[in-house]
Structures are given as C-alpha cells and as structure tokens.
Amino acid sequence: MSAAFFRALRRLRKDQSGLALIEFAYSLPVLLILALAGLEVAHLAIAHMKLSQLAMLVADNASRVRASIDEADINEIFTGANLSTSGLNFKANGKIILSDLEPNGLEAPNSGQYIRWQRCYGTGSFTSSYGVTNDGKTNASLQAMGPTGNQIASMAGTAVMFVEVAYQYQPLISNSLFGAKTIRYSSAFNVRERTDQAIKNAGNLAASATALCT
C-alpha cells in the first residue's frame, strides 16, 4: 500500500471531530428519561398538594355557611372546588363527598353519630369509605368518621363537615413510572355558628341541578 494511504489512516485515527456529538447521542436517552421522570414526579407532587388543599377548602367553606345551608350554597362550594383543581381534569376522574356528621341524639346503647346528609361532586367511580346518608341514625353503628387512629366525631348541638376526596391520577407522561394510582384525602371542620343543620332548597332546584350523591 502507498505511503499516502497510511498517512490518511493516521490522520483518521487522530481526528476527533464529531466525538462530542457521538457521546451526546449515547447519553441523550438517559438524560431524556431522567428529565421525563422528573416532570412526572413533580406533576404527582402537585396533584397531591392540590387534592389535599381541595379537601380542606371544601370542608372549611361548608362549615362557614351561617344560619342554614342550602343546595345553592353547596353548588357554589363545588364550583370553587372545580376552579381550584385546574389542570387535573378532576370532574371526570375524581369525586368529592361532603358529609354532615352529627350526634344521633339517641340514648345508650344506641347513642352515636349519624350522617344527616351527603352531597357529591365529580363523576369518578368512588364511594364514601365511612358511610352514606342516614347511616347511624337509629343505632350505634357509626361512632365517628375518618381513618383509624384519626377519627372525628361531632359534639352535641353542632355538626362536622367531613370531606373525602378521591382521584384517579392522570399522568403527565405515562403510567409506566408509578402505575395506576388513586389519591385520597379527607378533611373535617366543625360548623361555625350554624344551628340549623338540615339542608334547604329555597330556590326549588330540580334534583338534577343539585349535588346529590347518585
């Protein structure tokens, strides 16, 4: 072979142009995976934060309604809840369950708590983990609401607004990182000042215009 050929081989061996591009091509998939995973983790953390705040927001707002509470008040509370969950598509994938928890007023051994009424928002396929309307009304089957070790009961003459939030997590990128995930939060606030706990319908709203849990 000619000397020119060997000189060309030596130049090729020493040539490092394009090396950085090749190294970047090797590292790009790893960097991309890390970036997407970071975005998904951040998205999940934000979802948890929004849903935790949502449970407290609904319970707090429902407990602040004075004098009496009306179906229109519930609709306003849930409208605010919807605005606070922007970016989550909550209505289609989640549910808020608002329960009015009160003492059942019975003598022992039937004394306990009962759910006077319950209202819901969202079309997610979730049910209450603690009971439905009228549970505990005639017996001692319901003593409190909430997870074991963190239960709450209402005092005589008042009520507790107990809220459960459930949401089927909608990933930003893919379910492959966390899998199918259901997020749940609950919160409770004692009613302020209101002494009439029965829910009213002063506007004669049709059942379809109210937030019944059907």
Keywords:
single chain; 214 residues; alpha+beta; 4-stranded antiparallel sheet; two-stranded parallel sheet; 4 helices
Give an overview of the whole structure:
The chain is an alpha+beta fold and 214 residues long. Helix content is 36%, strand content 19%. It is built from 4 helices and 6 strands, in the order ααβααβββββ. The chain has a 4-stranded antiparallel sheet. The protein has a two-stranded parallel ribbon with strand order 1-6. The mean pLDDT is 91.
Contiguous low-pLDDT stretches (5 residues minimum) are none
Protein structure class = alpha+beta
Order of helices and strands: HHEHHEEEEE
Output the number of helix runs: 4
Q: Mean of residue pLDDT?
A: 91
Distance between the termini: 88 Å
Brief description of this entry?
The protein has four helices and six strands. It has 214 residues and is an alpha+beta fold.
List strands and helices in order, with pairings.
Elements lengths: L2 H12 L4 H46 L4 E2 H14 L5 H4 E10 L9 E9 L38 E9 L13 E9 L8 E2 L14
Parallel strand pairs: 1-6
Antiparallel strand pairs: 2-3, 2-4, 4-5
